[in-house]
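We keep the chain:
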Amino acid sequence: ENIRKNYSCKIKDFERIYPFSNENLRGCLNYYDFDDKKCLTVLGSSDQTLDMCLLGAKDITTFDSNSLTKYYFDLKKAALLAGISKDEYLKFFCYRNYSDTGDSNRFVFNPETFTKLVPYLSKDGNIFWTSLFNEYPIKQIRSMKSLFYFWDEEGKRVLQDTINYLYGNNYDILREKIKDLNFSFIKSDIKSLQSKLSTSFDFIYLSNIIQYANSIYGDDVINHKMQTILSQEQRKECLIHFKKLIENLYLLSSPFAKFIIYGA
């Protein structure tokens, strides 16, 4: 109820959602064996999870400090289970640079497609998305200054080249594989994640979280309350803290596990 009334604002536990991954997942994930692997990944846009499922993973634990990402995964999964085509999927979810001329998509989050998704939403997902669609104009939900990041969304053509399940006929393959996915979500930031894990993983994907090491550990290294900018030595200390966190997470991995920190 709180987020529905304040979704244009950043409030505790709720931030804007990445509509799609802005990483080259085809270039990153395609060189690994995911068959029957147990994976841990940041949830974000859900695309990392969906690509891992496409590539063979059947057990995926996700985490994110933003609670809204779970609802968004529910929406994307519902679209796959509903059996809509890839064209209809892209028309529903893509917004920025939808056409070759750079125009935005005026059919984004269209009610006609949403009605097809509703029967496949979880109970909580149904309440969340139906409430939004009933109470707010579509453009207010999906456009800039709303639930979603705008400038971090790649255009439709780029998405189909960089995300596995949107490439070629992979979308149709994923529609079948998603039915067997064992999915779980942990509401947590990376700093608190280890204490909430109770199993080991074959593959861990942390995306670009390392870029936020300063904000994650900034409060731990600041010596004066009035300080607002980290010194070079303090930034190094943040990276040392982050390195230790990664080492501790790696201890939870299965032997010979793959561990990816995107861009590191």
User: Anything to note?
Assistant: The chain is about 40% helix and 10% strand.
